């Protein structure tokens, strides 16, 4: 889920879904047993999952802000923190919304974005993340901080992401559906003007229900023609047709979430036949209600239907999860072998060079 203006959509979800609760992986155990999938492979599962090389294909950099960093930045600028004791532990959507706005306000200066990226890299290293294509949402930054020099903030992020000289992380600039096609075109121009900072593509986020993909067909065609990769959030807040539109009208190379594609077998078939990878974020889906927390995540059904699946974390800090936690969830329900297959799908669906993909596959084999 994109951070940008998702308040609107979350408000709708709040009316339909009721309060959020923390995901409890254990609560899925009985359902998993019933389905015959094997659970933990002994006491060493945590260590084995830790060792698996990991990729981020769907991670919003802003959504990785550590709770303690958020508190520090908020204190500096005297921003009210809705719930100091529990920071990111939301009991309901109004709490989430208040904190989300406070996080956006707290990221004010280029050095704040440098800190965000620096801490992201440290957290990624600690989880054996070896490659990432990260969403950033400059239109949200400008919304809350019109005075911010966006390029300067991107320079700060790029410098921190690549401080080790290995270029393991690139950026995808998220277009906001709510702001319409003209704003989207400006975002594409920004993406084109910041390719020197590691920007490789555009995404599409925001209110999926009210701002369908077709509004952005021309913008996406222009971006693709100019050499940018294109991905889109779809099938999260809207149904299967939204996924079909993202594929057929936008030419999206990957779909963020896509879980509601299951509502139409024809769309599942479309994803399978075109080998469109879904960037699946279980905890995010459970907490927003895009997937039922009482059942195993539908990612397993997509896999059975021949749709490539990559495992992702969306806004890990805000959802109190991590990429390692998401991998662990999959390994607990589907086993390590299946998890490793999903990592291979992620490598293949990434926008890395052929050589980089080979190197990543070699890492997976060695581990
Ligand atoms: Zn997202």
Describe this structure as you would to a colleague:
This protein is of the alpha/beta class and 367 residues long. It has a single domain (7-366), classed as TIM Barrel (Alpha-Beta Barrel), CATH 3.20.20.140. Helix content is 49%, strand content 13%. The protein has helices at residues 7-17, 29-34, 45-51, 67-76, 93-106, 110-126, 138-144, 150-161, 180-193, 217-225, 240-248, 265-274, 282-288, 299-304, 323-334, 336-349, 354-366, and strands at residues 54-60, 129-136, 169-176, 199-205, 229-234, 254-257, 277-280, 309-311. The chain has an eight-stranded parallel β-sheet with strand order 1-2-3-4-5-6-7-8. Helix 11 (240-248) links the parallel strand 5 (229-234) and strand 6 (254-257). The model is unreliable at 3-42 (pLDDT under 50). Bound molecules: zinc ion. The site of zinc ion has 7 residues, from strand 1.
């Amino acid at each position: 889920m994109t951070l940008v203006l998702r308040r609107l959509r979350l408000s709708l979800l709040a009316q339909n879904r009721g309060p959020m609760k923390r995901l409890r992986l254990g609560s899925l155990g009985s359902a998993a047993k019933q389905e015959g999938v094997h659970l933990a492979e002994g006491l060493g599962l945590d260590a084995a999952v830790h060792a698996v090389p990991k990729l981020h294909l769907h991670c919003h950099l802003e959504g990785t802000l550590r709770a303690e960093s958020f508190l520090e930045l908020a204190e500096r600028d005297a921003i009210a923190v809705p719930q100091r004791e529990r920071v990111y532990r939301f009991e309901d959507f109004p709490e989430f919304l208040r904190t989300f706005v406070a996080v956006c306000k707290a990221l004010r200066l280029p050095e704040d974005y440098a800190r965000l990226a620096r801490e992201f890299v440290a957290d990624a290293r600690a989880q054996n993340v070896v490659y990432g294509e990260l969403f950033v949402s400059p239109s949200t930054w400008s919304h809350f901080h019109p005075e911010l020099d966006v390029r300067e903030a991107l320079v700060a992020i790029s410098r921190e992401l690549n401080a080790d000289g290995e270029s393991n992380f690139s950026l995808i600039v998220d277009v906001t559906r709510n702001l319409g096609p003209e704003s989207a075109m400006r975002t594409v121009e920004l993406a084109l003007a910041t390719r020197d900072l590691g920007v490789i593509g555009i995404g599409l986020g925001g209110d999926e229900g009210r701002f369908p993909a077709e509004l952005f067909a021309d913008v996406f065609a222009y971006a693709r023609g100019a050499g940018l990769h294109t991905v889109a959030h779809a099938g999260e807040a809207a149904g299967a047709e939204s996924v079909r539109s993202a594929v057929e009208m936008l030419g999206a190379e990957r779909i963020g979430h896509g879980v509601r594609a299951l509502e139409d077998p024809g769309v599942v078939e479309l994803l399978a036949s075109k080998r469109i990878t879904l960037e699946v974020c279980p905890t995010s889906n459970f907490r927003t209600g895009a997937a039922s927390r009482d059942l195993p995540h539908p990612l397993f059904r997509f896999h059975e239907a021949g749709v490539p699946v990559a495992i992702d974390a969306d806004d890990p800090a805000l959802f109190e999860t991590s990429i390692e936690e998401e991998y662990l969830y999959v390994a607990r329900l589907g086993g390590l072998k299946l998890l490793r297959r999903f990592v291979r799908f992620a490598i293949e669906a990434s926008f890395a060079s052929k050589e980089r993909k080979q190197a990543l596959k070699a890492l997976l084999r060695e581990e």
